[in-house]
Amino acid sequence: MEHPLITDFIDELKPKIYELPQNEQQGLIAEIKDHILTEIEIKKDNGIDEETAITETIAQFKADKKNIYLIVDEHKKDKDLHFEGGKDLGFVMTAGLAIGNLGALSAPILRGYFEIGTMLPWLMFLIGANIVLYTYYSKRMSKSRTKTIKQMWFVFPLIVALPFVNFAINLTSHGYLNTFSAIYVIIYLVLVAATYFGMRRLYNENKFMLE
């Protein structure tokens, strides 16, 4: 059942639950909405017309909003128990690895060659972190996680500058243009751009939580 009064009431609750991951937000909203619809049906069974039943139910839930907020706070407390020191370390580490490993992948520009044995662990960390970030955490974003993504923007200028620094050092030390390093700079920048726009999209989809 869709009704402006129900929609408005749910919209009023949403800012209160932005600290919860999206999947839990949706579950909590669905639970509250289910209680609302159940109460409306009870009133209708007692002979009250639908419009009046909706109006009375929403008024009842608004008067009982403090209890609903207590339920939300309990959800937050339960979630905090899974974080060490109240910090979402799992998400912070995953996002950090998805960006930070790019720095390690610029090393071949300095060396002038790609050594698979040395670089494979960094590649695996990068791929694994991105898989977890975009398949697991993207569906569980919260206000604090969105803020964490925003705070990580400062890393990208450093990540972009790093290959040029390594390329300049390589050029200076060898005295000639290394073709591999030049091509690798381009590949590296494409990878950085893909990471940046992926992060940017994740942030844009959830930045409403920060408003």
Strand content: under 5%
- Rough outline: rod-shaped
* Count of runs of 4 or more consecutive helical residues: 10
Average pLDDT confidence is 84
Tell me the domain tally.
Answer: 2
Structural class: mainly alpha
Major beta sheet, specifics?
none
Q: What's the helix-strand series?
A: HHHHHHHHHH
List the uncertain runs.
Answer: 80-86
Give the end-to-end Cα distance, rounded to a whole number of Å.
Answer: 28 Å
Q: Level of helix content?
A: over 70%
Number of strands: 0
Radius of gyration: 25 Å
Description of the molecule:
The protein folds into 2 domains: 77 residues, no CATH class; 122 residues, no CATH class. It is mainly alpha-helical and 211 residues long. It is 77% helix and 0% strand.
